[in-house]
Write a structure and sequence with these properties.
InterPro entries: Cyt_c_assembly, Cyt_c_biogenesis_CcsA, Cyt_c_biogenesis_CcsA/CcmC. By secondary structure, the chain is an all-alpha fold. Helix content is about 70%, strand content about 0%. It has two domains: about 120 residues, Four Helix Bundle (Hemerythrin (Met), subunit A) (Up-down Bundle); about 160 residues, no CATH class. The relative contact order is 0.10.
Length: about 325
């Protein structure tokens, strides 16, 4: 009983913290204050500790890893979002905007699990026979890690599209009178220093636009890296799931709705990476593909559970 009480307290405290941290990072987008950024980082660390407490206490009294139903998977997804933020901040990367993506992601997934799901679905239950396997941690954790990183990368692409849509584009020339590689399509060329990885000659246009240009470059690079990592994790998750399916159901692939949508998700992000690596695309075109991937991930993750069909619908809502 004490574990259940601790879990409820940790869950409500962590949700309140994610809400406050989200407001802090959104305020930091406007004011770009070092104090706000520092406060948000500390708040995210405390949030991570609280969500960890939720998962650990649930694991202790349930006797299995907290990855067996929709509530636990959403809490795990919120935990991963906060962990991604902390890892990037610890590495010392200049990503002051990152909290405006990771904090709302952690808050919304946490809020849906805590406030959106009925109490019955939040309760821990015995594992169904198919889940009583050592593959549970390998497959489910890899899939959820891939979802979190792919969603963060896709949200970065969506933010990229929103910002570039509002920027007043200017044509800039390099010092040797030759055009540099286009960062955005539609023949809008920008002065970009490949060695310093930064825009140069900021006096050519207003500071607000210069700041937005720097932000779009960071968003584009972060989206590419996050989706690359998420795609690798998704591949591992699908392969481990195929092995597990063969042990549980006697078939590596049965075209279950979740399996089918996982394959569609994998294909969409494979197309994104192909356009980035082999075609050399940057900017709006691959960002549109990644934005489509955002929708596909949610259909794969939540849509199957909402319909309550197939072999993977353990946490269905209907």
């Amino acid at each position: 009983m004490i574990f259940i009480t601790l879990e409820h307290i940790s869950a409500h405290v962590s949700f309140s913290l994610t809400f406050v941290v989200t407001l802090i990072y959104w305020g930091n987008l406007v004011y770009q204050s070092e104090e706000l950024s520092s406060s948000g980082g500390k708040g995210m660390i405390v949030t991570f500790i609280c969500i960890t407490g939720v998962l650990v206490t649930r694991s202790l009294y349930s006797g299995h890893l907290p990855l067996s139903n929709l509530y636990e998977s959403f809490m795990f997804l919120s935990w991963i979002s906060s962990m991604i933020h902390i890892v990037i901040e610890v590495r010392g990367q200049d990503a002051w905007w990152l909290g405006a993506i990771t904090a709302p992601s952690a808050m919304l997934t946490h809020g849906f699990a805590t406030l959106g799901l009925p109490d019955k679905m939040q309760q821990s239950a015995m594992l169904v026979p198919a889940l009583q396997s050592h593959w549970l941690m390998m497959h489910v954790s890899m899939i959820l890690l891939s979802y979190a990183t792919l969603l963060c990368g896709s949200l970065s692409s969506i933010a990229f599209l929103i910002i570039t849509f509002r920027i007043n584009r200017k044509i800039l020339f390099s010092v040797d009178n030759s055009f540099l590689r286009s960062f955005l399509p539609n023949k809008n060329w920008y002065l970009y220093d490949q060695e310093k990885k930064d825009l140069i000659d900021p006096f050519c246009f207003p500071f607000s636009n210069y700041r937005k240009f720097k932000l779009t470059i960071q968003l584009d690079n972060w989206s590419y890296r996050a989706i690359g990592l998420g795609f690798s994790l998704l591949t591992i998750g699908i392969l481990s799931g195929a092995v597990w399916a063969n042990e549980a159901w006697g078939s590596y692939w049965s075209w279950d709705p979740k399996e089918t949508w996982a394959l569609i998700t994998w294909t969409i992000f494979a197309i994104y990476l192909h356009t980035r690596i082999n075609r050399g695309w940057q900017g709006e075109k691959p960002a549109i593909v990644a934005s489509l991937g955002f929708l596909i991930v949610w259909i794969c993750y939540l849509g199957v559970d909402l319909l309550g069909i197939g072999l993977h619908s353990y946490g269905w809502l209907i």
